[in-house]
Each structure stands twice: as structure tokens, then as C-alpha cells.
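Q: What would this complex look like in 3D?
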Amino acid sequence: MLEGLMIGLATALSIKNLAMVIGGCLIGTFIGMLPGLGPMSIIAIMIPIAITIGDPSAALILLAGVYYGAIFGGSTSSILINAPGVASTVATSFDGYPLARQGKAGKALTVAAISSFCGGTIGAILLMIFAPMLASVALLFHSAEYFALMVVGLSAIAAFAGTGQVGKAMMMTLLGLIMATVGEGALFNLPRFTGGVMDLQSGFGFITLAMAMFALPEAIFLVLDPARSKSADGGEQSEIKDMRITGAEARQIAPVIGRQSIQGFLIGVLPGAGATIASFLGYAVERNIAPKAEQEQFGKGSIKGLAAPEAANNAACTGSFVPLLTLGIPGSGTTAILLGALIALNVSPGPRLMVDNPQVFWSVIVSMYIGNLILLILNLPLIPYIAKILAVPRTFLIPFILFFTLMGAYIGQNNATELLILVGLGVCATILRFADYPLAPLLIGFILGRMLEDNFARSMQLYDGIGFITARPMTMGLLLVAVFLVFLPGYRARRARLRAAGVADGD
Amino acid sequence: MALDRWIALIFLLMCLVYGYTAFFTMDATLPPFMKRNPIWPSTFPKVLAVLGIIASLFVLLGFEKRSGTDKAPDIDYRRLWDYNIGQAVLLLALMALYAVALRPAGFIASTSLFLILGPLILGERRMLVVAVVALIAAVAVWYLVEGVLGIYLRPLPYFMGT
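A: Here is my prediction, written as C-alpha cells for the whole assembly.
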């Protein structure tokens, strides 16, 4: 491990990569602060740039920096104007905004920054310990197990990512998988399902899809409902002054941060869960175990209530890198986009990553430490100035967001038809969001689709048929877990209804 | 019928077409040597089509109860006309126009136009500011993409050289 760390340090501390971390964190903070733009949209917009860099370590470092920055920026806008840019910082606004209203915006930002820093750093340490262990187990996996593992990942995402509506999430996952079969696969040199359209010969562009699923609907929602971007009025923004916290306060939040960092990390590792669930759960847990007097404070400006979701969501972000780096299976929309970027850069994440591209793996981990440090020492003092961006009028903001999504899709494919596909898919995605369909499963399905089919095909060829499922106990077991995951939420909902009706007993 | 079930219906129809292609038309074009393979290009799509039909029927027939704690949706599509739907449609049209114009009109002209018309659609009326911002942004982005990232974008209209 020490050897790996050295490789990582050597790679991450080069001038170029340091610039990537700093740049990424700043850009992420900057854009993440804009209300309504989440890390997923930002990373989608940044991908074409990362891909043109060409060096996988640098690209991943840049994107990871953007990711942290965006989460940090999202917390800032939650605290200052009660406008969480991302679902995972909604819990931050519960206590952060009341603090800001009391004139303690500076203190709230400091608490948030320190909690994020600790959450991220503890997460990175845990990642460093767990990822190699998991990867060495994963090296024993066969294509059959990979196939089964991806099925498990996809069903876990469908089961937990939606708003409790497994059917809808399943539909979206399958839609993503179906879209992945369009075009000419690597396996068979036959174009499939192109409907004779030449531009679909190479399939849907991954960047186009990512933009259309996340950035574009967000922008359209901002247009539809001006209340979503509160930047226009700007009157509610509180003055930022006195960013210090006292020793007593530090002692108060230290145990919270410790607990939530670990809990957040573990939640982040699970596919489908991620930062949002981690932050809400962290908030709820801390409120429940707090002494009675402090419990009253939650929601009215408790610094514990602010520290908990912040530590948890940053640790969870780091945790979500574990399945990505060790198994090559993304557990969240954001890591799915990162996976797409890595594939575009000719790096296949998975257990072989640590053997084949150790510098990528370790430099990402080292850059996580550096990124967290930069957020703390560079961004925190800059926050009062960066916060000015919240005053950018939406009449300028929205056209620029739209323009950058267009640019991203165009740079990626260099094809004007791709832009029309982008607009079309964006409209479809918006309609899906109207109907409350989760879109992350679609993108994850799309990205995993090719790999899923490749592994399926390889297993079929090895065992000359479907026999691999019964011949390999591990595959069988994993597939059973997948089935169980899909039916679990439905079973629990039924159970809850029955119990509410007084029918079920004994649990 | 609520919008989510309409979508499920559309998805069901899509899966039926997709499944029909996978089950009945695709294999005909398969070269004979590939037929000895245990897996065909249509194998995986067949599985997907069947699963897709099951999932869409599940949603369509309303087996899924809405969760009790129904959070307020982001945007209520039933009151779509109360929102700035006109602006949204115009902006989407503008994006499509940009897509069509990008190649023939060149990057700088089409981008400036996009960044001028965009704010105007959203109700910005400070013409001079809009024009200056749009021009600076167009030239700056062009320089970044062409100069720094090294991706070729034709800056000028087609009749003014490459």
C-alpha cells in the first residue's frame, strides 16, 4: 500500500495534476453554487474537456475535484440562500439556513467546510484501506460473476434510487440497457436497431445522453419555474462575517463528524444509496441520539445538525468510488458519468485497474486528500467573493448553461446531428421528470449495458449456453440477491400497508 | 390516465417493436457461421424486451401503489400552462436552430446569435450588455476550444473560407 501511495503522490503532486485539482475544485465550487445545477450536470459538462486532456489520471483528478467542489458549492448555496443545488445538500439547509438567518453565516460555512473536509478525508482513508482488499477478491471473478454482479448493481439501483417506485426505476434501467444495444457493438460487427439512421450507427453518445438526462432538464426546469433559481432577487443573502468557531463548538461537533464520516462512507459504498441518503440518514441519526435539550435545536440552527449531513455526504461521495474503482460498477449517477469518461480514455476500471494502471488508482486517492485540503484552505476564504456569483441574473445564466450542454455534446462527437439528438432526448428526459421517473438508473443502465452484454456473451460462450448460471454457485447466489433486491421494497411496502390495516403481526 | 402511465404505455409499445425486431426479423440477416454460436446479436435484446414488457405492464396496470408520503413534485405538469412554457419551447427551438446553423454559419456567428437571443427570450432588455457578453463569450470559447483544447471549429461562415 505504501508503495502505491508513493506512486500516487508522485503522480498527483506534479504541477499539472495539482493545477487540475485546484482548477477542478474551483470550477466545481463555482458552478455547484448556482442553484439548480448539481454535480451530475457539472461533471457531464466538464467531461469533454477532461477527455481532451487525454491523460486518464489528470482527467479523473480534474473530475473528482469538480465533484467535491460541486458538493461544497451546493452546501454554500443551501446555507446562504436556502437553495440547495443538489439533493444531497438539502439536509444541510435544515440547520445551515437558520444559522445564516441568525447572522452566523460565516460560522455555518466554517462548520460545513470543516465537516466536509473531515468527512472527505476519513472517507479517503477508508477507501485506501478497503479498495485494495475488495479488488483482490474481485480478481477471482469470472465474466459470469461480473455479469451477475452488474445485475445486482442495476437492481439495487432500481430498488433504492427511485422514490420508492421500483417499477418505474426498473423501466428506466431497462430503457438504458435497450438504448445501449443501439448501434454496432464490439461483439458482433452488425449494426442493431439503428432504424437505418446513419448517425445511430455508432450508438447514442454517452456525453450526449448524460447532458440530455441531467443538465438539460435542470435548465428547462429553471426556465419553467423562476422560483427555482432564487439568484435573481438576491435580497435574502446574508452578510458573511466572522468565520471563526470556538473550541467548545469544535468539541461538540467532533464526535458527530467522526460517526457520520464512517456511516456516510459505508452508505456511499452501497450501490444506489449515495450522498443524498447518507446526508438525510446522518441528520436523522444525530438528531435521535442527541440529548433532549440539543434535539430541540435541530432545525433551528444547530451546528451538530449542520455538521452531520455535511460529513456524511462527503464521506459518501468518497465511498461511491469504491465500487467504481474496484469493480468497475458505478453505484450512482455521478460515478456512472466518471466511468463513462474513463472508458472514453481507454481505461477500464475494475480489479485490474490497480495492476494495470496503478498511477490512476493511487493518484485519484491522493488527489482526494489534496482536493479536500484545497477546499478547506483555498475555497473557504474565497467564499464571500465566490458567493457573488449567486447574483448572476438568470436571464444570462440559463442561456449559458444551455450553450455549454450544446458545446459538450458537439465537442464530444463533432457532429451537428448529435445536437438535435441532444435536444430531442432532453425533451424526453424532461417529460420523464414531470412524471417522476428517476433518470439516474437510465444512464447507469446505458453505461453498463455494453459491459453487461459482453460478460453475458462471454459466459454463454464458455459454457455453451445458459448453463453458467447453475454451474457457478457464486453467479447463482448473486442473481438470487438481485431478484431479492427487486422484490424487497414491494414486499416491505405491502407489509407496511398490512400492518397499518392491523392485519400483519409478529414483526 | 396519469402521465406516468402514458409513458409506461409508450414504453410498452416500444418494447413490443424492439422485441418483434429481436425475435423475428434480426436473425434472418445472420450469416450461417454465426448461427453456431450459443449467443446471437439478438439474444440479449430478447431478454431485455421481455423484461421491459413486464416492467411496463407493472407500471401501466397500476400494481405499484404510490408511496404514502408523496412529496410535492418539482413541477406539476397538470398546470404546465402556468409556468413559462413559452420561453422553454422557444429556447429549445433556439437550440435546434443552433444545431442546424452551426456548420454553415460558423461558430462565432451562430454562438453570438444564440447567446443574444437566449437572454432576450428570457426577458433581458439591456441590449448592449447582452450583445457585448455574447460576443466576448463566443470569441473566448472559440479560442479555448480551438487554441487550448485543439479541437477544430469553423469560426466563420462557409462562404468566408474554412
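A: To summarize the key features: Residues 2-500 of chain A form one domain. The CA atoms of residues 222 and 480 of chain A lie 42 Å apart.
Q: Very helpful, thank you.
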